[in-house]
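Kindly go through the entry underneath: sequence plus fold tokens. Please state briefly how this chain folds according to its tokens.
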Amino acid sequence: MTDHHPTETPAPAPASDTVPASDTAPASDTERLARAALTRILEPGDEQAGHALRTHGATRLLALLRDPREPPLPGTGPRRLAGWRHRARTTAPEADLDRITRLGGRFLVPGDPDWPTQLDDLGATRPIGLWIRGPAPLRTWALRSVALVGARACTPYGAHTAAELATGLSRHGWVVVSGAAYGIDGAAHRGALAAGGATAAVLASGVDTPYPRGHAGLLDRIGHQGLLIGELPPGSHPTPSRFILRNRVIAALTRGTVVVEARHRSGSLVTARAATRLGRHTMGVPGPVTSALSAGVHELLRDGATLVTDADEVVELVGAIGDLAPARRGPVLPRDLLDPAAAQVLEALPVHPPAPTAEIARRAGTGPDEALARLYELHALGHAERDGDGWRLTNTGKPVSNVRRGGP
């Protein structure tokens, strides 16, 4: 999302293995409790832990980690396993679930009706579960959502563009998803809220831990009107790696990702490239070629991302068939409404000195009679004037008002 970390962690490819059958059935209380515990034991996006979870299931994996007599997990180093087992002995998932309930939130796991199944594309790095605050249904919101991401230290141009995009998407009925950071993220959330639209923030911390602190009010508003989403249990604090890893969730959850401003090696580019690998739409808003904050976006565009400049163009890409952006063109001038023969004679008219009809006909490639008829038409429309025995363009160049094709 933002520039919290200088290096890119490779984004996961779509899962090649199938989703375990247990994930498609409603989760039992035991399964939910085990997954809540594992969100405090395992780091988000840990592929090795994800493979172990798929192999053993949440309940069995938690039991393996809590019993030191169990053999080590294949492929897991002793240091990592020791850390997992230490946290497994001290975690209290009942307290975490009670805390999220008191906050008016909930804990979603695979198999829940509100679980967004597009997250299954993350394969072994799919979230263990999601801690949620906010009244909205995540699954249906995610089906019509777009991520707006970009630089934390953005320019006024970037902040304005992000807010305008978010406002436009909201008016089209799309949910704006971002990461609640300073800069582009905050502008996107505020733009959606200002339009009375829907917005969701995916956090690298617990949903009760406002970060950055300066966005505490914004996050509280999103939690009441939209959705706060996190992989970490209540009370958890962000780390640099957690910011990068949460970006895969933003990419997988939404229909497409728009990058407004980003430097080279920005965390926002991680989100965009994860979106590409997951088969989502990747879009970029161009900026000045002299701006380092647009260099990463321009790199994305060279690599095949789609250039967009407003919400209509985003919706045309991510929306249903028929959601077309309006045609882009300059202002319509009165001369644009002339039929081809009249336009040809207009092009042949001199400014000064005036030319006889025969000369204008020769320049226009037509006969004198046809040229004379068109000259009188152009005269009536205010484009041409008679000067002695010749014709020339009007002095002012201003045509008469209310011009229509075929006559005054």
About this structure: The domain at 129-318 is CATH 3.40.50.450 (Rossmann fold). Residues 1-19, 397-408 have pLDDT under 50 and may be disordered. The CA atoms of residues 53 and 61 lie 6 Å apart. The longest helix spans residues 156-171.
